[in-house]
């Protein structure tokens, strides 16, 4: 495996050979720059970031692959509408500060989105270069370039704080501190409102802090991005559980808030409803990752929670959270980790890169298999999983072929820990204490699609509480859309 320095040197050598005035053919001929990363045999035993990021010459070379299309198809699939060709063009000219300024016009979180957003299903999916090669993997690596710009700014001590308009005299509450709330708070504060952010946990960042592992998203980056909100003048209160500490009505009627944005996410874990899910050693992925990420179970000297020692771990599910849980289990000392998924690898919703990283690190994949029972020893501790084989049938509403269980194919596999990673439902607390808020059958808030306003006037919502478990950038897009509508509402008010 080549080092980051070696990859960057190769990029520099390629740049020297490129003509001064690049034609479309020249740009199309430049290969995708690979992402430097830790050696799999080393990284599966540490919590340091796996992907190491582009060097300067790699970023410039990758940026030169962009055709600067006039119709900007990549922007159409960016939930926050970053002017992608413009910032990529600046990178190609080594004007990194100008590239940063373009990104910050639309996004306060480039270091985060550049790392964890599924660009292959968003901006890069529409890339003309990828379409010409008939392979999204050949698209311009927009996310990697965005990450480079953000990291360059951090390394050079550049922190662009958006300007704040004069005091509007309006007071706004933002409930939650995840991606949707961060985006909403930034845009509301830029408009001059007095913004208060309330977070139930003792740390801000929402899913960025408790859900995504350190090896994918260093928590120091999240703290830095939250710091921008503080520098803008946003008031942040932790250990403040809206729905318990104060209700929505109390915030509006007694505390004088003129409008409220709710971005409390999808934090209620789902289970399969199979026998044995209450045994010792069965975790929701939400709990397992929170114990590791937020409470640092991997650091036994300074951990705020005991580490559950397991050697053979089963993970149910095929999404990004399942990959995160499986790779975390390896880092917490498991000898054998197996992802059990009822479809095939082609139908897995997880990002291709995350699946590849898990495979490289030694995670096993048991496909076309459905867990039907968890077994335990006489002390009630997990000792196995009964698995039933499946085959693919007709396509379902998601467009993927439906798994069909094969009766009589059950068999038992030995495990001493099970992590259920089949999704989360919306946080139910605010609905319980604010019955006027309309929700759908899944508990997601029903909002005006154009404005994000709920069934209560002046109360808006966005992110996973509306979408169900979605992506960071989609949540940010919802936060920005709601903030725009809130600014207009407050101006009228």
Q: Which descriptors apply to this entry?
A:
5-stranded parallel sheet, 20 helices, 36% helix, 493 residues, 3 domains, 16 strands, FAD/NAD(P)-binding domain, alpha/beta, Fumarate Reductase Iron-sulfur Protein, Chain B, domain 2
Q: What's this, in brief?
A:
The chain is of the alpha/beta class. The protein has helices at 4-17, 24-29, 40-43, 56-63, 73-76, 84-92, 96-104, 110-116, 128-132, 142-155, 179-190, 207-210, 219-232, 248-253, 285-293, 320-331, 352-360, 429-433, 464-467, 472-492; strands at residues 171-175, 194-198, 235-237, 259-262, 268-269, 282-284, 312-316, 336-340, 364-366, 369-376, 382-395, 401-405, 411-413, 417-420, 424-425, 459-461. The protein has a five-stranded parallel β-sheet. Strands 6-14-7-8-9 form a five-stranded parallel β-sheet.
Kindly describe this structure:
The protein has 20 helices and 16 strands. It is α/β, with parallel strands linked by helices and 493 residues long. A hairpin with a 5-residue loop joins strand 11 and strand 12 (401-405). Helix 6 packs across helix 10, helix 8 (110-116) packs antiparallel against helix 10 (142-155) and helix 11 (179-190) runs parallel beside helix 20. The protein is globular, with a radius of gyration of 23 Å. The mean pLDDT is 95.
């Amino acid at each position: 495996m080549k080092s980051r320095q070696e990859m960057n040197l190769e990029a520099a050598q390629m740049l020297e050979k490129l003509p001064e005035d690049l034609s479309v053919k020249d740009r199309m001929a430049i290969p995708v720059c690979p992402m430097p990363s830790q050696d799999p045999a080393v990284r599966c035993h540490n919590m340091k970031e796996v992907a190491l990021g582009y060097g300067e010459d790699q970023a410039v070379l990758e940026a030169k692959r962009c055709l600067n299309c006039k119709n900007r198809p990549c922007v159409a699939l960016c939930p926050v509408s970053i002017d992608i060709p413009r910032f990529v063009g600046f990178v190609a000219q080594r004007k990194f500060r100008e590239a940063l300024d373009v990104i910050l016009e639309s996004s306060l979180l480039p270091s985060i989105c550049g790392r964890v957003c599924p660009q292959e299903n968003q901006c890069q999916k529409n890339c003309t270069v990828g379409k010409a090669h008939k392979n999204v993997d050949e698209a311009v690596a927009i996310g990697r370039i965005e990450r480079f710009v953000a990291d360059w700014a951090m390394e050079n001590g550049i922190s662009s704080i958006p300007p704040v308009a004069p005091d509007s005299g309006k007071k706004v509450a933002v409930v939650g501190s995840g991606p949707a709330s961060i985006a909403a708070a930034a845009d509301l504060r830029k408009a001059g409102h007095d913004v208060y952010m309330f977070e139930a946990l003792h740390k801000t960042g929402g899913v960025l802090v408790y859900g995504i592992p350190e090896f994918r998203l260093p928590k120091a980056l999240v703290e830095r991005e939250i710091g921008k909100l503080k520098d803008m003048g946003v008031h942040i209160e932790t250990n403040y559980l809206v729905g318990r500490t104060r209700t929505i009505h109390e915030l509006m009627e007694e505390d004088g808030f003129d409008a409220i944005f709710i971005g409390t996410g999808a934090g209620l874990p789902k289970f399969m409803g199979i026998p044995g899910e209450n045994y010792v050693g069965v975790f929701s992925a939400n709990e397992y990752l929170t114990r590791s990420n937020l409470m640092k179970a991997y650091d036994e000297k300074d951990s705020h929670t005991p580490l559950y020692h397991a050697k053979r771990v089963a993970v149910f599910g095929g999404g990004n959270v399942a990959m995160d849980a499986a790779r975390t289990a390896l880092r917490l000392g498991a000898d054998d980790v197996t992802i059990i998924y009822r479809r095939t690898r082609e139908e897995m919703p997880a990002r291709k890169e995350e699946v590849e990283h898990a495979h490289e690190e030694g995670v096993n994949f048991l496909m076309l298999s459905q867990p039907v029972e968890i077994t335990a020893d006489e002390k009630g501790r997990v000792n196995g999983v009964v698995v039933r084989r499946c085959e693919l049938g007709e396509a379902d509403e998601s467009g993927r072929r439906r798994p069909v269980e094969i009766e009589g194919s059950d068999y038992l596999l030995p495990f001493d820990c099970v992590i259920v990673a089949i999704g989360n439902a919306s946080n139910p607390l605010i609905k319980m204490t604010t019955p006027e808020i309309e929700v759908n059958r899944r508990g997601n808030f029903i909002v005006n699609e154009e404005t994000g306003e709920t069934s209560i006037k002046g109360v808006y919502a966005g992110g996973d509480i509306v979408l169900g478990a979605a992506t960071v950038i989609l949540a940010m897009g919802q936060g920005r859309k709601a903030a725009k509508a809130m600014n207009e509402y407050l101006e009228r008010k």
